[in-house]
């Protein structure tokens, strides 16, 4: 594909999203007026987009859309709120307030762990929004900058208490999150009734019109790639010497979304630009973010993420600009390698001889239903636990810093509320995005069909005696790819209700994008194809060969080397 003509890009008109940010007076808009407006449960005009910078999305229940339309009612507007929780760590005691809010004040009564180490409430009515922000503020949390064109929740390899290195990496994740946060006082004024201190805030890093598009950051500790770093804009891989982090390999430009049929959009794996010593991390973070801020495309949102900026200018030019802005020279990349992406379920001892327990939460959805009382179980644990809850990038939860004397007690609660269950490796490593009914962009089901697909695949794997193996299986309800299907061994991406594109051939550590195998097929067809592929793998694979590696070795799909060319071929 030809590189974009940057001059042409500059001559084009900026998108309306840019106008909204510019006119917003540092993200204030007229949100305050909308909060007083009782005629609608929604936000109007620019505020619909501006509330996202404050961590909220306006949604309506898509299961109810038609019915409400027929009854000539307004769609059932309610907000989704995404908390900011760098590295996913929260005191267990604070969890109780979150649990209470979900039960009392949300339409669904659930808490949803996301694959970026935080949680979302779905279904908060406009009139309850100030209450949720007050509750978060009371427990020293906020939702600032968890959505829209800013640096999102910063990820860090899970279970920081396992070693001093984890603790250090987690501290960096927190620092980066604070450092790159919007400075506007709009959040405090609007949601926490804090007095207007000035009318013109300064945004020294993000600028008056913030970033051209969303931006994602990770801090990683090899050999675990549980954060799926290759999907992120800016990544710091810890390099360790004498049990301390001495610096980071820096990788930039990852992202997974594309648009069906638009070959100018493609997923991309973050690329190495060099090694930096530890004290340079914030300078480099600022230089990368401001380069993307100034060079990113503001005339076309589908070409605005860091990977497109890199493609529009070249990786070398981007790197040189970062060196100039940070006043550094990148050193050659230091050796590192990854062995897995999954969470390490069960009990692990930490540096202080306490314990942590990693629990599998199907789809990250915390709720009470029939005999699955995950929400009550977690709140029972939170009542007696003085340590932390740690949310993982695989939508699971770690109960950490459990003293030896409480180990049995916590295990008993976890068992009795269904938080510990015998589950196949396939299920443990599966993932789906939220999709229906709350996601306005969903084209096909994801979260609500994941278990169905897993059960079918478990049976297929049992038939061919590979039931103890795992395959990374993920579903996304549309090509935005939130379920990170484009880093799976088998990935489904929604096309329309009941129909998906089937991608195969990613690898276990998440450094290879899978390739399309069949387009726009039904659930029934997917299962027929997967049965054939799993059977072939079970018979013809080399000893311990992973499914994705087998698919590529056998040439069942072409290996994606450069996704800009190979993804659409
Ligand atoms: Fe996402 C938009 C849910 C991780 C790429 N994502 C959305 C929205 C907010 C829909 C919307 O814009 O109205 C979804 C809300 C659904 C709901 O009802 O909750 C949504 N994304 C999610 C979550 C909750 C999926 C999950 O099941 O865990 C994840 C929240 C993460 C967080 O806590 O911040 C989530 N989204 C991702 C990821 C995976 C990741 O970051 O590791 C991706 C792919 C990586 C990437 O960014 O390329 C992802 N989401 C998108 C995109 C495509 C962005 C792009 O580059 O084009 C959109 C649409 C957009 O931004 O325009 C999107
Ligand atoms: Fe919604 Fe699509 Fe993201 Fe799934 S992948 S949560 S359907 S935007």
From TrEMBL:
Pathway: Sulfur metabolism; hydrogen sulfide biosynthesis; hydrogen sulfide from sulfite (NADPH route): step 1/1. Siroheme binds at residue 482. One of its GO terms (cellular component) is sulfite reductase complex (NADPH). The keyword Manganese does not apply. Its EC number is 1.8.1.2. Residues 79-137, 353-414 form the Nitrite/Sulfite reductase ferredoxin-like domain. One of its GO terms (molecular function) is 4 iron, 4 sulfur cluster binding. Alpha(8)-beta(8). The alpha component is a flavoprotein, the beta component is a hemoprotein. Signal peptide: none annotated. Residues 172-327 form the Nitrite/sulphite reductase 4Fe-4S domain. It catalyses: hydrogen sulfide + 3 NADP(+) + 3 H2O = sulfite + 3 NADPH + 4 H(+). One of its GO terms (biological process) is hydrogen sulfide biosynthetic process. It comes from Buchnera aphidicola. This is Sulfite reductase [NADPH] hemoprotein beta-component. Transmembrane segments: none annotated. Pfam families: NIR_SIR (PF01077), NIR_SIR_ferr (PF03460). [4Fe-4S] cluster binds at residues 433, 439, 478, 482. Keywords: 4Fe-4S, Amino-acid biosynthesis, Cysteine biosynthesis, Heme, Iron, Iron-sulfur, Metal-binding, NADP, Oxidoreductase. Belongs to the nitrite and sulfite reductase 4Fe-4S domain family. It is an enzyme of class 1 (oxidoreductase).
